[in-house]
Write a structure and sequence with these properties.
- There is one protein chain.
- This protein is α/β, with parallel strands linked by helices and 270 residues long.
- It has a single domain, classed as Spore Coat Polysaccharide Biosynthesis Protein SpsA, Chain A (Alpha-Beta Complex), CATH 3.90.550.
- 36% of the residues lie in helices and 18% in strands.
- The protein is built from 8 helices and 11 strands.
- The strands form 3 sheets. The chain has a 7-stranded mixed beta sheet, with helices on both faces. It has a two-stranded antiparallel ribbon with strand order 5-11.
- Strand 1, helix 1 and strand 2 form a beta-alpha-beta unit.
- Helix 3 runs antiparallel to helix 5 and helix 5 crosses helix 6.
């Protein structure tokens, strides 16, 4: 099994370091491949500079007009998911590069940097659930829970899916969608290649869930599946810590409520 993830210095400090620690603790035999933009931090083991891949440079060049100024573009009025799409685009390139240029004869598992492995699992557990080339968690959401993606490296449909996923960005087709984030665009790719993908949360509605560390988030489907035994996703932890911009600016009353809520959560976790 191979674990793939991506982060920069801020994401590494906020969550990526913990992710790698939990992988090494619970999945000691797994290979790890990191796609990074590190300047002050460094990781042990194989890594790829994600912002130097040609597809990154192409998308930055071709779609600069809808990339925020703080990410190298010229856009200043983006909101919601479209405000942060280019940050999440790193995940798209990482999956493409790993599946097509660095093939692995086994299962490749992409994990967001704010995911934690909480118990050991291996090929047997994945094989028992996954009967397609790509395994995702979508359920009744309009987008995929893109923090955890399974790829079967023995199937030619796995790299083909990663290539189609990236092509939606390279071609500019993603601009026709109402949302440009990887989660939504991956759901569109799934609809284009249904033969390649299995929804491991089929029929399940998203829920609000509190992880074992006290972190609470809505829109979760993984906790409603058996994979809750092995993985936890601290969704939203990066904007709560101020590492990335929030998608929406809450009004003063809501901001005060959230500050109090997250303060209680942090105190309880401590």
């Amino acid at each position: 099994m191979r674990i793939v993830t991506t982060f920069d210095d801020r994401l590494y400090a906020a969550s990526g370091k913990t992710l790698l620690e939990t992988v090494r603790r619970h999945l000691p035999s797994a290979e790890i491949l990191v796609y990074e933009e590190l300047t002050s931090e460094q990781v042990d083991g194989p890594s790829v500079r994600v912002d130097r891949l040609p597809e990154f440079e192409q998308v930055l060049r071709d779609h600069r007009d809808i990339i925020p100024t703080d990410m190298g573009g010229t856009a200043v009025k983006l909101k919601g998911y479209n405000r942060r799409w280019f940050g999440w685009f790193r995940k798209v390139i990482a999956q493409y590069d790993a599946l097509t240029r660095r093939p692995y004869e086994g299962y490749t598992v992409f994990l967001d940097s704010d995911v934690r492995v909480t118990a050991p699992f291996g090929d047997a557990e994945i094989r028992a659930e996954l009967q397609a080339a790509v395994g995702v968690f979508k359920g009744l959401r309009e987008s995929i829970e893109s923090g955890v993606i399974f790829y079967d490296g023995t199937s030619p449909l796995a790299p083909a899916f990663a290539e189609r996923f990236l092509h939606l960005f390279l071609s500019g087709e993603f601009r026709d969608f109402p949302r440009w984030d990887d989660s939504y665009v991956m759901a569109q790719c799934m609809s284009q290649m249904p033969e390649a993908v299995q929804d491991l949360a089929a029929g399940i509605a998203s829920i609000e869930h509190t992880n074992s560390n006290g972190h609470t988030a809505s829109g979760q489907v993984i906790p409603a599946t058996g994979w809750n035994r092995y993985l936890e996703h601290d969704k939203g932890v990066h904007w709560r810590k101020g590492v990335v911009p929030a998608m929406y600016t809450p009004n003063k009353k809501r901001r005060t409520f959230l500050d109090k809520l997250f303060g209680r959560i942090r105190r309880k976790a401590a």
